Amino acid sequence: EEEEEEVGVALDLVDQQPLSQTEELQEEEKKRPKFGTRYLVNKDEVFSHNAWDDVTISDEETKAAERIVEFHRANPVAQDKIDEYNSQPAHYWDQFYTTHQSKFFKNRKWLFTEFPFLLDTCDACEESNAGNNFNSMAPQYASEEWNASQHAQTRILEVGCGVGNTVFPLLEHNKDERFFVYACDYSPTAVQLVKNNEKYDSNRCCAFVCDISNDPLPLPPNSLDVIVLVFVLSALHPTEAREAVRKLAECLKPGGSIIMRDYGRHDLAQLRLKKERYLEENFYVRGDGTRVYFYEKDEVNRMMVEQGLQEVENKYDLRLIVNRAKKVTMHRVWLQCHFKKPSLKSFASQPQHI
What we know:
By secondary structure, the chain is of the alpha/beta class. It has 14 helices and eleven strands. Strands 1-10-11-6-5-2-3-4 form an eight-stranded mixed β-sheet. A three-stranded antiparallel β-sheet has the order 7-8-9, covered by helices on one side. Strand 2, helix 9 (167-173) and strand 3 form a beta-alpha-beta unit.
């Protein structure tokens, strides 16, 4: 997003410059390090870009963050309000989408950079699942959602789909008719916005309302190739998140993947929260009533491994965001994770203990 802002500024300047200066600006843009490859070697140059990658958080900065969290603990949400926020989270997310409609989030084009295997064709996914004949799995399974994808070879589920900022880029990047995307959210307003989108094609996509932590998932076991969780588990209470992962792991095919991007501990979004936003340790409520949890990567690993998933990637994505006008730096701490369900071949190759 920072890269897009910076390019946007450059394009604004282009409109105001003579041709020769435009060409110079384009050449300068080509030389500029792209987002994801900017490394701060000389701290004196920190204000030369809007963002830097893989910037380590110092001990002093960590201690300062811990002092802020201690302030949060000392100023929690009143107990009656905690019960209210935890009892009707879908209500607050529905209010959010009723207010913002499709105007709040941008399409997540970065997803393909961070998880390039999402660009695989259906044939590639079919090859990766060779020997796992799950397309005829659960033929008697009856649900409207499952019946919608009977022709599909590859099925992806995005949980917490919002207004389709991941769904539609996925469909645009893979035109194969056998490529099918499920999209669920516990906001009826969000799901309806997805269905109302001109790009929504019921032959290749099925959006439905589901509270993944409480509702049964209307899909059979071993039916999904990929599950996408982008800032989703953080919206759930940790207990709810574990239950959600249990259901999702069950629906994942052997050899299938869960990919996740979410908030990490001491992210800017946590540290800028005010008093009376603290629900419990690392779990907060925003001003609009939506909840947010800040994870450590070991927590995510335990949650996934408990359900028999194997870690492929589980790392912190550390970005230093810079406000060059105010000479202020801020740390973003995101988690980027990829876990796989063992394939049948993996199970078969494991030694049998008698």
